[in-house]
């Protein structure tokens, strides 16, 4: 089936993605609309010299590698449940095939390639190293990686049927995060590929647009389908946060990414506190525990493609202390120096 995958990681209330005049999907990221890591010490932010971005040298102790890792080993239960519901919808694949044609695929591919810088061992080699290492840890083939100029901190994945997928990260995201945090973002995007989220991400965007164009019942069908797709998208993001943790191997890295995307900037990055953000998450749970609070919480999140950042932080904190996560770590092996080179 021809499929185009688009995932992103921002923090805004995101409605269904729509095409712009250039036929690009609007993007959101690791936050409440779509994408984030520990407050790490010793990793300096990106520096500018002679008007060019200089990435600080990336180095960390040899990480654990999951050589036999399967997507279901870390897939969130809500992801599993909602994927089964989507698969049970009759005619979904056929409708997706009708909504997505070769021309649209090529426009998306060329538009992204033509406006970004392709990362390689000779072009931004530290970012290249991060991606290769993250893919190795998750036991997945490394996609291409592009850096794109944008003031909006974001990252997204594009995978077209029969072609090598690629990840795009924005320059402002590079500016905002530490090296470990940036690799956690890359791992989050790899999680979408590892779990085959692409088809459903595409349908979540295109199917809703197509349903709205159907005369008569179109709006009703779109609204009903939109809620189900967004419910799945929020669950899929929780899965990919787990992929980020498997690579970062430190929950504070992932939580720090979420915190920075929610309300961080380079000038205040050293003042942010992960523990305080987790306490904020607990206070949100307490405030929404009453019947009225529960209703408001559901109304607040129903139309979001990403869970609220504080809830994602709490989820990843809890999973990092689970027996499931500890069992995965026990199965892993140390990445040696030869592999890293």
From TrEMBL:
One of its GO terms (biological process) is proteolysis. Keywords: Hydrolase, Metal-binding, Metalloprotease, Protease, Zinc. Binds 1 zinc ion per subunit. The keyword Metal-binding applies. It comes from the Eukaryota. GO terms for molecular function: metal ion binding; metalloendopeptidase activity. This is Peptidase M48 domain-containing protein. It comes from Gossypium barbadense (Sea Island cotton). PANTHER family: CAAX PRENYL PROTEASE 1. Residues 125-319 form the Peptidase M48 domain. InterPro entries: Peptidase_M48 (IPR001915). Its cofactor is Zn(2+). Belongs to the peptidase M48 family.
């Amino acid at each position: 089936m021809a499929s185009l995958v688009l995932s992103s990681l921002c923090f805004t209330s995101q409605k269904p993605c729509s095409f712009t005049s250039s036929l690009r999907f609007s993007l959101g990221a690791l936050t409440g609309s779509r994408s984030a890591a520990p407050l790490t010490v010793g990793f300096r932010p990106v520096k500018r010299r002679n008007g060019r971005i200089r990435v600080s040298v990336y180095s960390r102790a040899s990480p654990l590698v999951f050589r036999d890792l399967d997507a279901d080993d870390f897939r969130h239960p809500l992801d599993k449940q909602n994927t089964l519901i989507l698969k049970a919808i009759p005619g979904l694949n056929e409708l997706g095939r009708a909504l997505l044609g070769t021309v649209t695929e090529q426009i998306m591919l060329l538009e992204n390639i033509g406006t970004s810088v392709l990362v390689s061992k000779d072009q931004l080699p530290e970012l290249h190293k991060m991606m290769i290492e993250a893919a190795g840890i998750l036991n997945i083939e490394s996609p291409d990686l592009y850096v794109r100029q944008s003031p909006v901190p974001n990252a997204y994945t594009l995978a077209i049927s029969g072609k090598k997928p690629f990840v795009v990260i924005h320059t402002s995201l590079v500016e905002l995060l530490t090296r470990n945090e940036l690799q956690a973002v890359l791992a989050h995007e790899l999680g979408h590929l590892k779990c085959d989220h692409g088809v459903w991400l595409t349908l979540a965007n295109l199917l809703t647009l197509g349903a709205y164009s159907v005369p008569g019942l179109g709006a009703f069908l779109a609204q009903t389908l939109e809620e189900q797709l967004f419910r799945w998208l929020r669950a899929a993001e929780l899965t990919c946060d787990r992929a980020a943790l498997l690579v970062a191997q430190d929950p504070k890295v992932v939580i720090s990414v979420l915190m920075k995307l929610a309300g961080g900037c380079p000038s205040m990055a050293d003042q942010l506190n992960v523990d305080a953000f987790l306490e904020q998450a607990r206070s949100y749970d307490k405030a929404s525990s009453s019947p009225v609070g529960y209703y408001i919480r559901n109304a607040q999140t129903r139309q979001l493609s990403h869970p609220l950042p504080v809830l994602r932080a709490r989820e990843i904190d809890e999973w990092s202390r689970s027996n499931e996560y500890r069992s995965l770590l026990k199965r892993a092996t140390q990445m040696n120096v030869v592999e890293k080179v």
